[in-house]
Amino acid sequence: MRMLHTMLRVGNLERSLRFYCDVLGMRLLRRKDYPGGRFTLAFVGYGEESEHTVLELTHNWDTERYDLGNGFGARRPRRRGRLPHLRRAAGEGREGRA
Predict the structure, then answer these.
(1) Would the N or C end of the chain have less CB density within 10 A of its end CB?
(2) pLDDT in tens, 7-24
């Protein structure tokens, strides 16, 4: 199993892309605007998504800045047993701790 991507919320997408691409040497792999939701997703990385973990930059159009520490995206299962394949990979069965 490998991590596909992780997400950071950014207040200024263009400035963030300059940092990740020009300073860190990543490439912009894809970018898409979602006008109905008023956000843009940009994926950057050191290689193609099929072979490398990439970073998803999420720009919410109506948010100019985030306080330190609240711009990370996270997913949590809402109830036990929703992600049994992850528990198996971690060596736990259905009865294991979540």
Answers:
(1) N
(2) 889 999 999 999 999 999
